[in-house]
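Data availability (excerpt). The following record was deposited with the supplementary files.
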Amino acid sequence: MKIAGYIRVSTNNEGQKESPENQKHMILDYITENQYDLYDFYTDIQTGTTDNREGLKRLIQDAENREFDVIVAKELSRLGRNVELLYQLKRVADTKGVRLITLDGKVDTQDFSKQAMFGLYAWIYESESQRISDRIKSVYQMKYKSGKFMGSIPPYGYNLHEGKLLLRDDYTVDIVRDIFDKYLEGWGHDKIARYLTNKDIPTPSQVVGKANAGLYWQGSTVKKILKNPHYVGDLVQGRETTMNVTNKIRKANNPNEWITISDAHEPIISRDVFEQVQKLLELKARRGRGGTRKKKHLFTNIAYCSECGNGMWYRSNRKGYICGTYAKHGNKACSNHAVKELELTEIILDDLKNMSSRLDHPNLESKIEKKVKATAKKNESRLEAIEKQVQKQMELKRNALQKFINEDISKQDYDDFVSMVQEKLQQLELEKVKIKKEMAESHETSKISAIIEQLKGFLQFDKLTSEMLLRFVDKIEVTENKDVRIYYKFAQVEGL
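Predicted structure:
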């Protein structure tokens, strides 16, 4: 009987540092007493109301794959404080025949007398979390009204000192003013963003030192600055809130629910300028809502830049496509890959015609069938060999875990070994994906008769359509010198 032990603490603070170890030992004691085998531990240091927990995700996935027989947790609240989430886990467990028990004796999904209590305990734990969340929100409301800035990151152009916003003593203040001025001059969000990128102005994320900070300004970032009332000196908070304790998606509050402290800090933008910008933003938004839907052009989501890999954007003034990265950020980000739609259409049509002629000759289908069968057999053998390697690595991983539990190896040695095994498993998984893709492409190629007939049917009209592209073309890459690389949805056959 294989046991999956789930461990969770809400925070990583000092008061809960021992909790994971305590939960672990309780589960190990249960395993020892019942002479079961440990499959693995699944650990999260996160709130129980969210389903965005790596340990829980892995637990559910392994339950789906029936990797173990029983899930054990200290109590139901460790697994979660979200009714929907707990029932999701229970449904998976019930479907796959996995038993779910808690060490406090309140939950056992194979004990009929305790089945009815599952929902009650789930509701109790969620309600408790909601009450705690409501109390925290009330505390924040009081702090908002005291004039204290409660965000972790101050608006661009400001520093945060003891809950107060202070002007930065650098270029960022002038950049904010420049953004507002250029918008009133008629510049759009994306044009302003491109201008700032090309001037090598660090992005707001770079200024505050975010680890994943982007290199280029975005139009959305510019728009956010333009709409931020903090720049007139007002402290405005409570503009957003989470839906509830189990739904972390943030929703905008009504403006009458905002908590505003006027003249709380030094302004960067005058109220007059700010109001002009808001009117202009609203005017453009109304025009956008009342306008026609953007046309999807023939090669949208099909043509890509060969250098940066991003999609090509259609520009009516060019009657063709340019690299989306270049269009958005300028030559700091990518070069000017461009091609006329008419030129691209002619290239694709000619290549499809050549493809059709190469495919349409005697005995081709039988040759392809033999080649496909031989390739399929080879790929199946490769997959079997990889699967054996995967099983071997999983066994090594389980042995290492057992050695760690028995204290035969140190935590560092265990972590190092597991890291090595995981790296190997990832490599094997990538190989499997590659082989399966080859098998799918080979299978598609085996339908050569259907491909030929469809090509003939489409090409008799001598016109490139979106249906043709959807059926035959996976993607198109455009180089800087307008060379075009076509990737078909069926595999190219050697010798054709």
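Summary of structural features: The domain at 2-142 is CATH 3.40.50.1390 (Rossmann fold).
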